[in-house]
């Protein structure tokens, strides 16, 4: 399944404007003017509504604003069970922003709508076209409150005090503390390369330069240093390196800090320039798309890499490891702060990734909220992540938070990935997914990333106050920020490819002036305001 990187999901960049207002009580009484039909079943707050709703011939249209989404329904193990449990047919429709805008222009909005960015006009004005989840839960399925996260509901409240959208992969402070949120970024090296070159210092700029030379001397056919492709922005050489260096996101007074101009980060960019000058960064790395990057990873072409979102590269990493058991990529301490700072690795925060809404146009609001509750529940999460007990998985010693694949399922997953994806679809029905459930089974992730995840776990650092802080789309500030962001992407490449230090410094000075010309100070005023709003929502001073 083709997935875009979360928070950047990352999700490596931070999405724009604060959508939300102050928190309130979770079960606030409905004030919606939308007339909701009465339920056809007895509502019981202690019981999921789908277990009581015996209605037949239910159909919902669900739009996913992602063309890569698998539209099939009822043909695989997972969606067959969803269909059976909910007495529901789902017609999935996929598309891009153009198709989404067409829906809204026509007013013919599907029953459920999933978007991938809380910064869009669709998300920011959800109160004009979607139904409040609290109203739906109160009337049709109060058990929703037992499975939805209060922190997440509060985070997505709009100015009317209601929540209209619910995301997947919304991690709370408790999730980060639990140890069940996996690290996704790491500096990695092939095990055989590490063994062959002897002790090297990958943590300091000069040591890194020397280590790349040592690799080239021993392995002339390899690319000493690789990184995620630039097609989605600044690659893993942007935010990911900054996270690895522990570069702050705010000043001490909680105002926005420009990480791109951080002294420690610039020192490392100068080191990368020297690595490139020595021929140890390939020029192809700046033009390769994601497929080319993965292809080289699959063939072990890179000796070392700064990898962002390693789960998204899991199949490539695993294919290489399976064919070369003693040459797998492992995470090590590399590219560290010259100031003694600890890495502060990112993961999805409260905003999550995909945001799901129930349209005011839905003909079956009861069934729609049941879908949300069902997929958010432990039952729904176990089903979508692991399948059916006894068929694809078993609990270990009766522990409901410890799962292993059945022998038959493990064999299919290992030997026939196509069948695993087509017939089982385990781990792909992700609109309400969450990392904490995947942690029940270590094999939820390919073996190739286990060590990398374990290495980064201690460095995971939530940055909730920095979510959705950019100017409102459509404003002059937003257009200016877009220009600055685009300029930085090309500047970063130019800095690393600069022929000497003088050209490096000149290129950086040009970028600084570009920011000033595009009124970055005014942009930062908005960022500062939104940071303060986020802190208020989080109960921070």
Automatic annotation (TrEMBL):
<feature type="signal peptide">
    <location>
        <begin position="1"/>
        <end position="21"/>
    </location>
</feature>
<keyword id="KW-0732">Signal</keyword>
<dbReference type="InterPro" id="IPR050490">
    <property type="entry name" value="Bact_solute-bd_prot1"/>
</dbReference>
<protein>
    <submittedName>
        <fullName>Sugar ABC transporter substrate-binding protein</fullName>
    </submittedName>
</protein>
């Amino acid at each position: 399944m083709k997935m875009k990187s979360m928070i950047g999901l990352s999700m490596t960049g931070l999405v724009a404007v604060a959508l939300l207002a102050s928190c309130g009580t979770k079960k606030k009484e409905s004030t919606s003017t939308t007339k909701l039909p009465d339920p056809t079943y007895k509502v019981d707050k202690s019981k999921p509504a789908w277990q009581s709703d015996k209605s037949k011939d239910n159909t919902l249209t669900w739009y996913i604003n992602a063309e890569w989404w698998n539209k099939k329904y009822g043909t695989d193990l997972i969606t067959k069970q969803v269909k059976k449990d909910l007495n529901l047919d789902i017609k999935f429709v996929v598309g891009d922003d153009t198709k989404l805008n067409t829906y809204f222009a026509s007013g013919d909005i599907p029953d459920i709508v999933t978007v991938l960015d809380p910064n869009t006009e669709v998300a920011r004005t959800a109160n004009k076209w979607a139904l409040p989840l609290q109203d739906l839960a109160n009337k049709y399925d109060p058990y929703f409150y037992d499975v939805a996260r209060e922190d997440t509901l509060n985070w997505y409240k709009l100015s009317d005090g209601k929540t209209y959208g619910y995301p997947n992969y919304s991690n709370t402070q408790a999730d980060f503390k639990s140890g069940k949120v996996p690290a996704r970024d790491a500096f990695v090296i092939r095990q055989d390369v590490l063994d062959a070159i002897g002790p090297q210092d990958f943590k300091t700029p000069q040591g890194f330069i020397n280590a790349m030379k040592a690799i080239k001397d021993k392995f002339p056919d390899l690319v000493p240093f690789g990184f995620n492709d630039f097609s989605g922005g600044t690659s893993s050489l942007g935010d990911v390196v900054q996270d690895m260096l522990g570069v702050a996101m705010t000043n001490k007074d909680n105002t926005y800090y420009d990480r791109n101009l951080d002294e420690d980060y610039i020192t490392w960019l100068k080191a990368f320039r020297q690595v490139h000058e020595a021929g140890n960064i390939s020029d192809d790395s700046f033009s390769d798309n994601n497929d080319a990057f993965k292809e080289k990873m699959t063939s072990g072409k890179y000796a070392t890499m700064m990898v962002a979102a390693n789960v998204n590269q899991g199949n490539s990493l695993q294919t290489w490891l399976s064919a070369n058991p003693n040459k797998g990529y492992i995470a090590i301490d590399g590219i560290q702060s010259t100031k003694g700072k600890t890495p502060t690795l990112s993961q999805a925060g409260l905003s999550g990734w995909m945001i799901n809404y129930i349209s005011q146009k839905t003909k079956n609001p009861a069934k729609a909220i049941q879908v949300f509750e069902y997929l958010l529940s432990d039952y729904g999460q176990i089903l979508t992540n692991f399948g059916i007990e006894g068929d694809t998985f078993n609990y270990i010693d009766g522990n409901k938070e410890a799962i292993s694949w059945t022998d038959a399922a493990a064999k299919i997953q290992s030997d026939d990935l196509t069948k695993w994806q087509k017939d089982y679809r385990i781990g792909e029905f992700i609109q309400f997914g969450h990392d904490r459930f995947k942690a029940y089974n270590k094999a939820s992730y390919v073996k190739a990333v286990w060590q990398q995840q374990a290495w980064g776990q201690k460095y995971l650092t939530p940055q909730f106050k920095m979510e959705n802080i950019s100017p409102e789309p459509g404003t002059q500030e937003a257009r200016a920020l877009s220009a600055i962001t685009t300029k930085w992407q090309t500047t970063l490449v130019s800095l690393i490819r600069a022929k000497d230090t003088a050209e490096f410094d000149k290129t950086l000075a040009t970028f600084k002036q570009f920011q000033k010309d595009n009124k970055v100070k005014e942009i930062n005023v908005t960022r500062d305001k939104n940071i303060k709003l986020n802190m208020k929502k989080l109960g921070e001073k």
